From TrEMBL:
Name recorded for this polypeptide: Integral membrane protein
Main location: membrane
Source species: Salegentibacter echinorum
Keyword Transferase: no
InterPro entries: DUF3817_TM (IPR023845)
Domain DUF3817 as annotated: residue spans: 8-93
Compartments it resides in: Cell membrane
Pfam name, any one: DUF3817
Topology in the lipid bilayer: Multi-pass membrane protein
C-alpha cells in the first residue's frame, strides 16, 4: 500500500472516529441517561470502539513513514480522547 493510500485511509478513519465519538457523547449518552434508552450506546459504542482501535493502530502505522516525532505521535494519540480532536489531526497532520 502506498503512503498516499495509507494517509487517505487514516484520514477516513480519523473523520469516522471523530463523528462516532460525537454521536456517542451528544446523542447516545443523553438517550441512555436522560430517557433510559441504552440501545444506541450499545450500537454506537461498539462502532466507536472499533474505530478508536483502528485510529490508534493507524497512527502508530504512519509514525515512521510520515516522520512524526514522539511528541507529535503522543499529541495525535491524545487527540483521540478529546471531542473534535481527530478533526484537528486530520487537518494539521494529514
Amino acid at each position: 500500500m502506498t503512503l498516499v493510500k495509507q494517509k487517505q485511509t487514516f484520514k477516513y478513519i480519523s473523520i469516522l472516529e471523530g463523528i462516532s465519538f460525537l454521536l456517542l457523547l451528544f446523542i447516545a449518552m443523553p438517550l441512555k441517561y436522560i430517557w433510559d434508552l441504552p440501545q444506541m450506546v450499545e450500537q454506537v459504542g461498539m462502532a466507536h470502539g472499533v474505530l478508536f482501535i483502528a485510529y490508534v493502530m493507524g497512527a502508530i502505522w504512519l509514525f515512521k513513514p510520515l516522520n512524526w516525532n514522539i511528541k507529535q505521535l503522543a499529541l495525535i494519540l491524545a487527540c483521540s480522547l478529546v471531542p473534535f480532536g481527530p478533526f484537528y489531526v486530520e487537518k494539521k497532520y494529514l
